User: Fold these one by one.
Assistant:
Number 1:
Amino acid sequence: MLTLADYGWDGERERSFSGFRADGLVPGRVVRAELGRCDLVTETEVVSALVGTSWGAGERLTPCTGDWVAVRPATAASSATVVEVLERRTAVVRSSASRTSQAQVLAANVDTVAVTVSLADPLKQGRIERLLALAWGSDATPVMVLTKADRSADPISAASEVAAIAPGVEVLVTSAATGEGMDALTAVLSGTVVLLGPSGAGKSTLGNRLLGEDRLATGSVRTSDGKGRHTTAWRELVPLPHGGVLLDTPGLRGVGLHDADEGLDKTFAEITDLARDCRFADCAHTTEPGCAVLTAIEDGHLTRRRLDSYHRLQRENAHTASRTDARLRAELERPKKQIARQARALKKFPHFKA
């Protein structure tokens, strides 16, 4: 029988849980979360629990798959209830799909983020960079997993292309159909592993290979547009036979960045390193003199596409932050207001010089 330790419970968490135990609560880990209810594994069983309000705060809880929670056990008169979400050590977070300022936690307390990309389709470097920023920003360890190598004309060349835009990340070529690369992948996966990628990347098929059984639903890619179908309808935590647990996620059609400064710095590590040699500390790497990043482009050590992608994701991240940070929003709006004032002055006084 599996224990909480098999799901990642350790001595540090046990020590921090003493106050909850004194109140009659027990620890559990969310294996599947739904609105107002979640399935979780406890020290003695797998239970379905209601989601209550935060312990002493009165705020509605929003547990995510992978969360550790404090649970009030069921009684003859009441169901088991989650009363607190414990502090998350890591979290994969994206901007809400609704494009609001809210963040959406995709997975909590993960150790390895396996960014899955299909070699059956043309590589999209911008999408890979976006997913890597999400993975690095989680504080977990990213691994690039290139799937469906059996359907690629030149998987080695593709791996080299991905490695060039994934500094510091191990890149593995795999095929769930033939077993290629599966031993190497198993060796680098540790703790709680989340599979992250677009629909059709082969996440569920890869997950079944790791699990040693067809437990996760799989489906084919649409022939009309080459896009994958959402065969995984929810996030679920499943124990792995070699140790650790696997978290399969629905395919991501959109990946909005949220508070991704650190993730972008690591994703574009070569640009971050070059920036240290720029003449100006606040160099934007656009037209400034003495810019080490622009010099690297001129010398052929950095591609313009790479810098453009970095700038684009930085702007998106800053815009997302501005929707929740009034001060930053004011800073972003100030240049627009200055231009508007100057335009009005020129109309009123044609000889006015800004």
Number 2:
Amino acid sequence: MSTASKVTLAVSCLFAVGSFVGINYLQKAEQAAIRQGPIKDAARIAQKEKTRKQILNEQEQKMQLELKEKFEKLQPLKEEIITGVDKN
């Protein structure tokens, strides 16, 4: 076998092995990315839910403050503490 054919065979083998290793690496990386997809989606959905809950909580707080103001107008709160004992 000539030197040129040996070099060609060696380069071809190295290219084949390199391609095999590279393709396997890319497949594993792709599989890892696919596995992360549902995890990222769940985190994104949880963030949206959190935002919705925050909006609902803010609306409820606003409503509670309005009710408090309305009831304070009808029946003002006094700062004194009632202990049940007459001061007389």
